[in-house]
Amino acid sequence: MKRLRNHGLTLFFFVLFLATLVGQALVGHAAFNQEQMMGGSPTVPLGTYLKGPDFAADVAENWQSEYLQFFLLIMLTVWLVQKGSSESKKPGDEGLESDEEQKVGRFAGPDSPRWARAAGWRLSLYSHSLGLLMGLLFLGSWFAQSVAGHAAYNAQREEAGLPSWTWLKYVSEPDFWDRSLQNWQSEFLAVTSMTVFAIFLRERGSSESKKVGSPHEAHE
Fold first, then answer.
1. CA Rg, the chain, in Å?
2. Long-range CB contacts for residues 10-13, cutoff 8 Å, separation at least 24
3. What is d(CA 107, CA 152) in angstroms, rounded to the nearest whole number?
4. What is the spatial distance between Cα 144 and Cα 183, in angstroms, rounded to a whole number?
5. Overall average pLDDT of the 111-137 stretch
6. Cα–Cα distance between 177 and 172 in angstroms, integer?
């Protein structure tokens, strides 16, 4: 029970992820078959839909927008600030900070991660590992979306008796960027809203919020 408590936030959101992924698969399958019937095409079983490009494209386009949000938030909060927001450092604290402030190298403690106590490329890599991972996950999911979306779009063109497009042709056309930008703009709006609202509003006990009695200008 202690282990469950210590990892409760991760476990809760992972269960939510699995539940909503299953839900998306079921309703996406139903919607896909409705479109098939409306177009006079045969319906497909759930397994066929899950292995097809339409489901993969729908999943990947949401993943890539989320990882883009986290990548930009992680990287930009090194240098950009918002006065009073719990999502930001204090104005004047911009930058990479000193080794002492970051507790790396000779300033690392005995319980610090091993690579934080190292030097050279290992310390440099570990110092930027979170941003690098989020960037790679964004690029990977973006590429997966482009490949799956390309296959799904060509299947539609084939049904209409039109020639297939190359991958480069597809990623330069509106269909692909419509899928991407409609997700990106919602993520950017969410980050902007959280950054600003966190200045003035509170949620007692949440690590995402300042203390209820903290001044609006405070950073915690």
1. 23
2. none
3. 53
4. 15
5. 93
6. 8
